[in-house]
């Protein structure tokens, strides 16, 4: 693969910045190729080539955040969960990502193209926590019978509910509390090394 | 207050039915007074009188569900939580209510009128569980230091996340699991009546 043309990279960055501003100010209704072109100075033709439809633009915005949020697990269950959910917390408090998620939640209910984008983002957005949980089960720090899908909901659900439904902001203490309650409920008793058993 | 004119009740029901259908089929974009008038046969003048703006229509749809969901707590913590969250589950699986919530989550981010509707629905929608938790704290079945707002997120959050973000349906077993994990983590040890202490 050739390195991308620097002009394309600049156009792409300028267009995404304008798209994110429009999304925050006006929601999906304001996110048209015409409005992005007018604000960014990038031609409509270029915009249609980069992101044929509005879902592509929203996906581009959120993917950027999710990629930032990925860090390889260290093997310390508590620390890894806090790192992953702190990244989710940051995304939920970044205006364009937050509004992008709101738009996707609405549109995925009625528009198959958005439902696909939603599916892909949900998959990549929960992969980190899924890997952390699977690893902890393999190390017997979480029980083998743990319902991983339910655990994902119990870890992500409170954050999404508080930000997108209750519409409140929250700090890292909140993330700690959610992780602590989860571990208190599910973590197996640590097996201490003993002499003979 | 005079009893409502039966014609008004019929118009209102017909219009709400059409509004709910449009919401499910097309999301907010399809929910215009013109489209509701065309489908229901109710005049636009009547529609504007009943619900001046689209947020009013969506609020009317969801309020109906939330009112249905309210039952006075019996005092049995587990049973009351399961009853309340089963109603939330039913609402999340009723197409018009589900899409109404999706629309509100999106619009509340950018439109103050929808933010008000969201606030009012969030308040009435979480009141039942709040009362159940407050009662259980008063009876010392839950600890006095319980963070009630966090508990609300831990009980509602997984349901909303699974339905609106993961986009999966779930049954009553799921509600039982969420309640069971919550009680396992937070419920105080039952004080058994004893002879002398």
UniProtKB/TrEMBL annotation, chains A, B:
Residues 32-51 bind DNA. Keywords: DNA-binding, Transcription, Transcription regulation. PROSITE patterns: HTH_TETR_2. Gene3D superfamilies: Homeodomain-like, Tetracycline Repressor, domain 2. Residues 9-69 form the HTH tetR-type domain. This is TetR/AcrR family transcriptional regulator. InterPro entries: Homeodomain-like_sf, HTH-type_TetR-like_transc_reg, HTH_TetR, Tet_transcr_reg_TetR-rel_C_sf, TetR_C.
């Amino acid at each position: 693969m050739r390195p991308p043309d620097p002009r394309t990279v600049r156009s792409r960055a300028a267009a995404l910045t304008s798209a994110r501003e429009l999304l925050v100010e006006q929601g999906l209704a304001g996110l048209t190729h015409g409005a992005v072109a007018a604000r960014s100075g990038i031609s409509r033709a270029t915009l249609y080539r980069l992101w044929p439809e509005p879902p592509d633009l929203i996906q581009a915005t959120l993917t950027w955040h999710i990629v930032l949020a990925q860090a390889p697990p260290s093997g310390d269950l508590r620390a890894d969960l806090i790192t992953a959910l702190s990244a989710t917390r940051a995304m939920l408090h970044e205006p364009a990502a937050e509004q992008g998620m709101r738009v996707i939640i609405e549109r995925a209910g009625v528009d198959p193209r958005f439902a696909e984008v939603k599916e892909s983002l949900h998959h990549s957005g929960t992969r980190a926590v899924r890997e952390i949980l699977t690893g902890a089960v393999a190390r017997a720090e979480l029980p083998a019978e743990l319902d991983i899908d339910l655990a994902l909901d119990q870890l992500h659900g409170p954050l999404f509910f508080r930000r997108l439904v209750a519409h409140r902001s929250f700090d890292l203490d909140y993330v700690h509390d959610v992780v602590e309650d989860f571990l208190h409920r599910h973590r197996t008793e640590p097996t201490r090394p003993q002499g003979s058993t």
